C-alpha cells in the first residue's frame, strides 16, 4: 500500500536488508528517502532545525499568554503554504474570520514591508462594510490589500482552518481532518494545533489528559507523516511576573517534553535578558520590548539550547523573518525582582 509521500507501507517490522532495498527503490524513483521537510520560512530557525520541520515530528510551541505563539504558528503555516505545501490549522482559540484578518495583513506585509494595512485596518473595513461590496473590492481599498487577496486566493484549499471545539474535536476528528486534507490537496499538510490543553481526552487529571493528547498527536505525526506543531499553554505558576518561561513550565510538562521532538519557547526579550543590559542602558528596555526570544529548548535532530530573536510586527500579525542569535546574556530562570 502507498503512503502520502510515496513510501511503500511494509508494516511495522523492517529487516535491515528490506529497509535498504526499500530505500534504494524510493531513491531510484527520484524521491527523497528520508523524512519530508517543511521550511518554517525563518532562515535562522530553519538552520537550527537543519532545514525545517519534519514529517513524524511533534513540535511544541510554548510561551506566556499573549506573547506571540499563535502569531508565530500561523506565520509558519502560511510560509509553508506560500512555499507550495499545504497546512491545516486547528484553532480552539480563535474564529476563522479573526485568523483571516491576521492573514490578510500578514500577507500584505510579506509582499511589501512598507506602510501596508494593519490587522486593525482590515478588521475595521470588514466590520463596517454595509454597501454590499465584494471582499476583493473592499481589500482593494487598503494598502497592500489587493496583493494580499490575490496571494490568499492563490493558496486555494492548501490552507485550511478548522474551527475546533474543546468538546467535539477529539484526536479522532483531528486525524480524520488530516486524512481529508491530504486527500483533497494531494499532499500531507503541516498541522498547527492551537492549543494542546484544549484537546478533549477522556482522562481524569490534567497531567493525564495532556499526556494522552501529546501521545495521540505524536502518533498522528508518525502515522500521517506530517509535522504537528502544538501550541501549549503555560502553567499558572509560570505566569507570575519575574519568571522566564521554560519547557518545564508548560501545563502537563513532563509528558509534553518527553513526547516532543522539538520544543520552542517564546518569551519577550525584555523579560529574559540579564539585568546588566537593562541597568546600564535604559534605552535598551524600549529596544528589547520590540523583540521576542525564541528558545530552542529541545531539538532531537540538531543543536538545542539555541536562543534566537525576532523583531515583532504584531500590528501585521507577524514577526520579521530575518531573526538572529541573541547576543546578550539571558537570565536562567528567575529575574531580579527589587
Ligand atoms: N493589531 C495589533 N496591533 C498590535 N498588537 C497586536 C494586534 N493584534 C494583536 N496584537 C498583540 O499581539 C500579541 C500576540 O498575540 P498572539 O495571539 O499571537 O499571542 P499568543 O501567545 O498566542 O496568546 P494567547 O496565549 O493569548 O493565545 C498579543 O500581545 C496581542 O496583544
From TrEMBL:
InterPro entries attached to this UniProt entry: AAA+_ATPase, DNA_helicase_DnaB-like_C, P-loop_NTPase
Q: Does the keyword Translocase apply?
A: no
Q: Which UniProt keywords apply?
A: Primosome
SUPFAM superfamilies on file: P-loop containing nucleoside triphosphate hydrolases
Give all residue intervals belonging to the SF4 helicase domain: 31-326
Q: What is this protein called?
A: SF4 helicase domain-containing protein
| Natural source organism | Terrabacter lapilli
Amino acid at each position: 500500500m502507498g503512503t502520502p509521500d510515496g513510501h511503500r507501507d511494509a508494516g511495522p517490522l523492517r529487516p535491515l536488508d528490506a529497509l535498504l532495498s526499500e530505500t534504494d527503490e524510493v531513491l531510484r524513483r527520484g524521491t527523497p528517502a528520508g523524512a519530508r521537510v517543511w521550511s518554517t520560512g525563518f532562515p535562522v530557525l530553519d538552520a537550527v532545525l537543519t532545514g525545517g520541520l519534519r514529517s513524524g515530528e511533534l513540535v511544541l510551541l510554548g510561551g506566556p499568554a499573549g506573547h506571540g505563539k499563535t502569531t508565530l504558528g500561523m506565520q509558519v503555516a502560511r510560509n509553508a503554504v506560500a512555499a507550495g505545501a499545504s497546512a491545516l490549522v486547528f484553532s480552539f482559540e480563535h474564529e476563522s474570520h479573526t485568523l483571516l484578518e491576521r492573514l490578510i495583513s500578514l500577507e500584505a506585509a510579506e509582499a511589501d514591508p512598507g506602510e501596508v494595512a494593519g490587522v486593525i485596518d482590515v478588521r475595521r473595513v470588514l466590520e463596517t462594510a454595509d454597501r454590499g461590496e465584494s471582499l476583493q473590492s473592499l481589500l482593494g481599498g487598503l494598502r497592500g490589500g489587493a496583493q494580499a487577496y490575490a496571494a490568499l486566493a492563490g493558496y486555494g484549499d492548501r490552507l485550511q482552518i478548522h474551527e475546533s471545539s474543546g468538546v467535539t474535536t477529539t484526536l479522532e476528528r483531528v486525524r480524520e481532518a488530516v486524512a481529508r486534507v491530504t486527500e483533497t490537496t494531494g499532499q500531507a499538510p503541516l498541522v498547527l494545533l492551537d492549543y494542546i490543553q484544549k484537546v478533549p481526552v477522556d482522562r481524569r487529571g490534567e497531567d493525564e489528559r495532556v499526556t494522552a493528547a501529546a501521545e495521540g498527536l505524536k502518533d498522528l505525526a508518525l502515522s500521517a507523516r506530517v509535522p504537528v506543531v502544538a501550541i501549549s499553554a503555560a502553567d499558572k505558576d509560570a505566569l507570575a511576573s519575574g519568571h522566564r518561561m521554560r519547557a518545564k513550565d508548560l501545563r502537563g510538562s513532563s509528558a509534553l517534553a518527553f513526547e516532543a521532538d522539538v520544543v520552542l519557547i517564546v518569551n519577550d526579550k525584555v523579560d529574559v535578558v540579564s539585568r546588566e543590559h537593562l541597568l546600564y542602558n535604559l534605552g535598551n528596555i524600549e529596544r528589547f520590548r520590540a523583540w521576542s526570544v525564541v528558545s530552542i529548548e529541545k531539538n532531537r535532530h540538531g543543536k538545542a539550547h539555541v536562543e534566537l530573536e525576532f523583531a515583532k510586527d504584531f500590528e501585521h500579525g507577524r514577526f520579521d523573518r530575518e531573526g538572529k542569535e541573541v547576543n546578550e546574556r539571558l537570565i536562567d530562570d528567575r529575574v531580579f525582582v527589587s
